[in-house]
Design goal:
Elements lengths: L15 H32 L4 H27 L10 E2 H11 L1 H6 L3 E6 L5 E2 L3 H18 L5 E10 L2 E8 L7 H13 L3 E6 L5 E10 L1
Parallel strand pairs: 2-4
Antiparallel strand pairs: 1-3, 3-7, 4-5, 5-7, 6-7
Length: about 220
């Protein structure tokens, strides 16, 4: 659930426990799905000799699977660290770390990644470690999927008294894998936010995340 601007960062939404419970259920379902995908890839690998096309794509599919598995493990280990006692983290620091994590891949694909933050946006108040992992995942997917030579702009703006909006906008169109989107949205929901994907009328893809903030 997205926390409205008329709520303070010290308050918990009425459905907070329900959100965490739903996120936990999703994680369990996701892990089952990832296990099934791994088993399917094993079968495909055995039959890859009959299909060069399958053999060519299997390494990429296994890489995507492993990245989702690692992210799920990060979520599992950090899911308890979302209380108000966890220090809030400035957006510039959180997103700067996420951008640094994809700098090598971005350079190889000639993708420019820019960060624009409003000083009034504040800091990430809940689960900054999880939020940072989400943006690292989204940026990695965007850099890999966006057309070569694209420009990715990460823009942070205040959207309420205790809320901020983070837009990841690409001048080219890229497709975020459904599993990655579902996982990222579930994690953000568990810390009071959400994720929306849209494609512009004149091309380009935008991912918009909403987060609870502190001054």
């Amino acid at each position: 659930m997205f926390v409205r601007g008329d709520q303070t960062s010290a308050e918990l939404p009425p459905d907070r426990d329900a959100g965490l419970s739903g996120a936990s259920d999703f994680l369990h379902e996701l892990r089952n799905r990832l296990f099934a995908m791994s088993a399917l890839f094993d079968v495909l690998e055995l039959r890859a000799g009959d299909s060069p096309e399958v053999a060519r794509y299997l390494p990429h599919l296994r890489l995507e699977l492993r990245r989702l598995e690692q992210f799920a493990e990060t979520w599992k280990s950090d899911s308890g660290a979302v209380e108000a006692s966890v220090p809030a983290l400035p957006f510039a620091e959180l997103l700067g770390g996420a951008i640094s994590s994809v700098s090598e891949t971005a350079a190889l694909r000639d993708v420019l990644v820019s960060l624009v933050t409003e000083p009034e946006a504040g800091r990430v108040a809940r689960g900054p470690g999880l939020a940072g992992a989400v943006f690292a995942l989204l940026l990695d997917e965007a850099v890999r999927q966006a057309p070569q030579g694209s420009h990715l702009v990460v823009r942070v703006a205040k959207s309420g008294r205790d809320a901020a909006r983070v837009e990841l906008r690409c001048d080219g169109v890229f497709e975020l894998p459904a599993a990655a989107f579902e996982l990222a949205n579930a994690v953000l929901t568990s810390i009071g936010g959400d994720l929306v994907a849209a494609r512009g009328a004149h091309g380009g893809t935008t991912l918009t995340a909403h987060l609870v903030t502190a001054p």
